[in-house]
């Protein structure tokens, strides 16, 4: 692809995650990384230097020079930035969650559809190498158990700790909710949830049991106050049991066999999940540019909206639980 054909891309927010967006875009043969924006001057200087690109101090000026942008700012300003960029007719990839409020997410999806713009949502776990195996082999799942645990985010001068503008359900659990919704493909029948605020105004550790109309049950735990990180997924079907480690990109499958239970290592075609996510977004933008019709990304705005809807329902259930049982919220 020659220079004129490359997609001109920018990154809004180059903190812990956005800097990786910028780095990977700078290496993508189909992309010209036009520049980056961040409210933190140190982040802006460091990332623009690392990626050999321009640092912008104004979002509109960056957008004017781009065709597509990644949004990697705190979740509570996703809506503000997304609406601004969509109104400037820019294709966007928004890091999860799509927005902090359901009505804001609905407005983003609706605007992108009306303007025929690509809208991708950064549920990067969908691009994890082990996911392709799950999608192909884990049919008719009866029960799932998922754990996503992480240490509390480090402090940032002048800003809240990364991700704590929302509770752990929207911060971490939403990754797994998105995956579960895609695998189960059924309406939710009932939600039972509990969540405890430890260091944040919102819940820092949460557990939910989700019963689906088709009979599947998912038990999901997320924590951002754990000593050791963990990202594990287990699924039970009529004839098999899968256990996967997202972090190590490994897994085992146990299947019924005439002589008992057969254990197999899950084959993994290893790759960088974020790199694949950005490639998917860029290819959608290229197609939209050629045809005028935006194709659906692997994780579309609708998918992001579905995941946010169930995440909001869980947080509301947690609030009701905490009010009923007098759980104190940190100030």
Walkthrough of the structure:
The protein is an alpha/beta fold and 331 residues long. The chain is built from nine helices and 14 strands. The radius of gyration is 20 Å and the shape is globular. The protein starts with 6 loop residues before the first strand and ends in a 6-residue tail after the last helix.
Q: Tags for this entry?
A:
331 residues, alpha/beta, 8-stranded mixed β-sheet, 6-stranded parallel β-sheet, 9 helices, 14 strands, 26% strand
Structure class? alpha/beta
Fraction of residues in β-strands: 25-35%
Series of secondary-structure elements, N-terminal to C-terminal: EHEHEHEHEHEHEHEEEEEEEHH
Taking pLDDT < 50 over at least 5 consecutive residues as the criterion, the unreliable ranges are: none
Alpha plus pi helix count: 9
How many strands appear in the DSSP assignment? 14
Shape descriptor reads globular
Percent range of helical residues: 25-40%
The largest beta-sheet arranges its strands as: 8-9-10-7-11-12-13-14
Q: What would you report as the Rg, rounded to the nearest angstrom? A: 20 Å
Average pLDDT, rounded to a whole number, is 93
User: Alpha-carbon distance between the termini?
Assistant: 54 Å
Largest beta sheet, briefly? 8 strands, mixed
List the helices and strands and how they pair.
Elements: E1 7-12, H1 18-27, E2 31-37, H2 41-50, E3 54-56, H3 59-64, E4 68-71, H4 78-87, E5 91-95, H5 102-114, E6 119-122, H6 129-137, E7 143-149, H7 168-184, E8 188-196, E9 205-212, E10 217-223, E11 230-236, E12 240-245, E13 250-257, E14 260-265, H8 273-291, H9 301-325
Parallel strand pairs: 1-2, 1-4, 2-3, 4-5, 5-6, 7-10
Antiparallel strand pairs: 7-11, 8-9, 9-10, 11-12, 12-13, 13-14
Helix pairs in contact: 4-5, 5-9, 7-9
């Amino acid at each position: 692809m020659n220079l004129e054909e490359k997609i001109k891309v920018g990154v809004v927010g180059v903190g812990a995650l956005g800097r990786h967006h910028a780095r990977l875009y700078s290496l993508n043969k189909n992309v010209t990384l036009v520049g980056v924006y961040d409210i933190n001057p140190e982040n802006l200087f460091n990332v623009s230097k690392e990626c050999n690109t321009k640092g912008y101090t104004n979002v509109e000026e960056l957008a004017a020079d781009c065709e597509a942008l990644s949004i990697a700012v705190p979740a509570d300003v996703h809506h503000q930035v997304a609406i601004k960029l969509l109104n400037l007719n820019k294709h966007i990839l928004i890091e999860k969650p799509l927005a902090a409020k359901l009505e804001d997410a609905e407005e983003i999806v609706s605007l992108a559809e009306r303007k025929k713009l690509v809208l991708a949502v950064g549920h990067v776990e969908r691009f994890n190498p082990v996911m392709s195996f799950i999608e192909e082999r884990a049919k008719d799942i009866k029960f799932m158990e998922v754990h996503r645990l992480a240490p509390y985010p480090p402090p940032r001068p002048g800003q809240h700790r990364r991700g704590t503008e929302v509770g752990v359900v929207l911060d971490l659990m939403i990754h797994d909710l998105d995956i579960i919704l895609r695998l189960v493909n059924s309406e939710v029948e009932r939600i039972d949830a509990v969540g405890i605020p430890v260091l944040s105004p919102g819940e820092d550790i949460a557990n939910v049991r989700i019963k689906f109309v088709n009979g599947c049950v998912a038990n999901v735990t997320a924590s951002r106050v754990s000593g050791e990180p963990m990202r594990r997924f287990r699924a039970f079907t009529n004839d098999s049991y899968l256990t996967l480690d997202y972090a190590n990109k490994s897994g085992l499958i146990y299947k019924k066999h005439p002589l008992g239970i057969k254990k197999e290592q899950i084959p993994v075609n290893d790759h960088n999940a974020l790199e694949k996510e950005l490639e998917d977004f860029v290819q959608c933008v290229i197609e939209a540019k050629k045809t005028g019709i935006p194709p659906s990304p692997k994780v579309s705005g609708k998918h992001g909206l579905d995941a946010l809807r169930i995440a909001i329902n869980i947080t509301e259930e947690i609030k009701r639980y905490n009010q009923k049982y007098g759980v104190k919220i940190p100030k």
